[in-house]
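Example 3.2
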Amino acid sequence: MSSELKQPHFRFLPRAYELDGVFEKTDATCPVYQTAAGWRYVGSIYSNFRGEIQPGAQSILDRKLGRALGDDDYTLHDAEFSDALNADLEAEILQGTPGFPTYNPFTWPVRDDFPLAFIGYGDEAWVKDDKKARAAIAAAGQTLGEEDWDYPTSYALIFRTLDGETYAAEIDLD
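Structure, written as tokens:
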């Protein structure tokens, strides 16, 4: 396997290769492009396809997974959006952004008609020193009636705007 594997960038999941349960390095062939995958997606695929398939990262970024599934109505997330999105952004999230492990369906936050990027979970070490992330977790906890919900909690899904200015959290209870 090449020591320098191409890592396509997913703007709504910028830490795709760091998070558990998303990608793993591989020598396998991508079932979509029939070329070396480099990174194999190990997350969930919601589709009518019956079988096992682990596409390469590039085929997800290109939104070409439907070719191998024989199903263009697939999604990589069990999510709905907090506000309506235009069709291109919705497709980019649902079919062109890798899914990440969650306990339940969740609501993907949208601000000013634009989705936020998922950046991690509320029990990750970096959250301890990130005041905006901790404030977002506390605010999300308050919507559930919890006045002092804070770090660490694996139940918090943390998102931020692409410019990094605004954070939001969704609580995903098991």
